[in-house]
Specification:
With about 600 residues, the protein is α+β, with helices and mostly antiparallel strands. It has 26 helices and 13 strands. The chain is globular and about 65 Å long.
Length: about 600
């Protein structure tokens, strides 16, 4: 093995100017000191579990990750300074592969490239061979095995006992609980121990269910754990195993093969991209959580005002549901909890700093079984990730990209408010049928959540959630954050939708470039955002990968105006990636 970056590149990418830092809770954090002794003990055990489970993500992401880490450890022991720098990036980006804020993909391992199937499919499996093998398996009666292969919780290996006519080995699925049996078992032991010392009974019960799910090859075990987790509201601690499927670029390709897609539909097999696991440990911030909950009462009204709301089911029941019930008291409640969390550690998928890092999550996603057994959803917000520590850098960015007359409206808190709207937006709109959008599904879902956040601002002002001044602050902050440093790759769902939104809003005249920087037409902005939301919902309702592709192609446009804005941003802000400093977590993980 060899390090894939030069000495100069390693020095640059690990410097303070190019590698920004986010500080998680420190050893002397007052949030930790205020915990009851039992919760301190539980927090220690949960942190240790998260650190064990980090290796699961590394294996899922790329089978070369852990061997490369071992190589770096040996090189560091031998005095290799470049290995020390490479290890800093490895720990920041959680693996050998990353993409930076200028959309440059790179690997820390010489000769390595990121694989479409990550570490969850055979490394040499091509899309064409994948489709050919699945078709052969289906034609020869291996329907159940194909169903398992296209499930979100399986690692795929070759089955050399069966081959296609031209000699391609079939494939077989290994459930996550078997593929990662050692790490899952060790983590489950720690979760059970934590459940015996925490002070909150509901949280302790969730931990027990999550421990069972880690050692049981049954999706329903995950469903029961998810359902219990989504009900948690008044707990001192946060522990989450996040399961999101944005990274797997192999499974979703089946929708591009018309013959295979039709055959799967006939056999009632719904392919779902594979989950990448993240592991979050934190302390719930009560004051921040109370502020989040203020919007909850408005969600049914937002659901009622969604485009085409009468044509699909959504996770939040629209306002008026009570009127249709024989007994208004039996009307469905909003099944959504929300917590603001001070972060101890973000391991695995949630902590992988690759161009950006997760601000908040709304889970479980629509493909999860817990939503079919009466479970709700839960929003978790990351306080340390959203904090802006370098105000001088922020001002340089604003000077480079935003009309000076609008600087008065830019507000850090407004970015958090927009994020709240975005996460709640994931609970609105069609809650099924979007898997058929294939590789465009995640882009369009993130686009939807953003457009709900801004298009509903007039409604939230009307309902009393925000003031007219706060609406201006949110719109301004949202627009300022649309400027990227480079055209993103199609695999970067969050960034592709950002380009689409800026292009659409400029095309509609709601946003314009004046003297090289962005300005906003507040009079037309909400209407333009709602127009884009309507288009999104139409695509999601269609369940058509062709319509999804046409929609993304129409608005994912990187023109000269975009590039000029990007150049100004690159000049103002040189950071390429970031890392999380976890002082408290490291102390807890290393303690007996």
């Amino acid at each position: 093995m060899k390090i894939g970056l030069s000495h100069d590149e390693l020095v640059k990418r690990t410097s303070d100017e190019y590698l920004s830092k986010k500080e998680m809770l420190k050893k002397d954090a007052q949030e930790y000191a205020a915990l009851a002794d039992g919760d301190k003990q539980a927090l220690k055990l949960l942190t240790q579990a998260a650190y064990i489970l980090e290796d699961v993500f590394l294996k899922m992401d790329d089978e070369r990750n852990i061997p490369f880490r071992g190589f770096l450890e040996k090189e560091i022991a031998a005095g290799n300074k470049d290995a020390e720098l490479a290890m800093k990036l490895f720990r920041a980006q959680k693996g050998i592969n990353a993409v930076d804020r200028e959309a440059v993909k790179f690997s820390l391992l010489e000769g390595a490239e990121e694989l479409p199937g990550k570490g969850l499919y055979p490394a040499d499996l091509t899309k064409e061979a994948f489709h050919k093998i699945l078709l052969d398996m289906l034609k020869n009666g291996a329907t159940d095995e194909v169903r398992a292969i296209l499930n979100q919780r399986s690692v795929i290996v070759r089955d050399d006992a069966h081959k296609t006519a031209d000699g391609l080995s079939w494939l077989k699925a290994i459930d996550y609980t078997k593929a990662f049996e050692d790490e899952f078992f060790r983590a489950s032991v720690l979760l059970n121990k934590a459940s015996e010392c925490g002070t909150n009974a509901a949280f302790n019960e969730f931990l027990k269910l999550q421990a069972i799910a880690l050692t049981t090859a049954d999706p329903m075990a995950d469903a029961y754990a998810d359902k219990a987790w989504a009900d948690l509201q008044d707990t001192p601690l946060e522990f989450t195993i996040t399961r999101e499927n944005y990274a797997d670029e192999m499974t979703e390709t089946v929708y591009e093969n018309e013959t295979l897609a039709a055959l799967l539909k006939d056999m009632q097999i719904t392919p779902v991209s594979k989950d990448m696991l993240g592991f979050r440990v934190g302390i719930v911030n009560k004051e921040g959580t109370e502020q989040l909950l203020a919007i909850k009462k408005y969600l049914p009204e937002l659901a009622a005002r969604m485009p085409y709301a009468d044509k699909y089911e959504q996770n939040i029941k629209p306002a008026g549901a009570a009127d249709k019930a024989s007994d208004a008291s039996k009307a469905p409640a909003v099944k959504q909890t929300m917590v603001d969390v001070d972060i101890v550690t973000l391991c695995g998928d949630g902590g992988a700093y690759r161009a950006g890092i997760t601000l908040a999550e709304n889970l479980p996603n629509d493909d999860k079984l817990s939503l079919t057994i009466g479970g709700g959803r839960r929003n978790v917000y990351h306080r340390q990730i959203r904090k802006t520590s370098d105000t001088t850098l922020l001002q340089r960015i604003l000077d480079a990209t935003l009309d000076p007359a609008l600087h008065q409206f830019y507000l850090d808190d407004a970015d958090h408010w927009i994020t709240i709207g975005h996460e709640n937006g994931h609970s609105l709109g069609p809650n099924s049928g979007t898997e058929a959008l294939g590789k465009y599904k995640s882009i369009i879902e993130e686009n939807k959540a953003d457009m709900i956040s801004v298009s509903m601002l007039d409604t939230l002002v009307e309902l009393g959630m925000y003031t007219a001044e706060q609406k201006k602050q949110m719109i301004t902050t949202f627009v300022a954050d649309l400027v990227l440093k480079a055209k993103p790759n199609m695999s970067q769902a969050h960034r592709v939708r950002t380009v689409m939104q800026l292009y659409f809003l400029m095309k509609e005249g709601a946003v314009a470039v004046k003297d090289g920087v962005l300005t906003v037409n507040f009079d037309t902005f909400i209407a333009a955002s709602h127009k884009m939301l309507e288009k999104i919902i139409e695509v999601q309702m269609s369940g058509s990968i062709e319509k999804a592709g046409a929609y993304v192609s129409e608005y994912f446009v990187w023109d000269d105006t975009m590039e000029a804005l990007a150049a100004r941003l690159r000049e103002a802000n040189r950071s390429l990636n970031g890392w999380c400093e976890e002082e408290l977590a490291e102390m807890l993980a290393g303690s007996e």
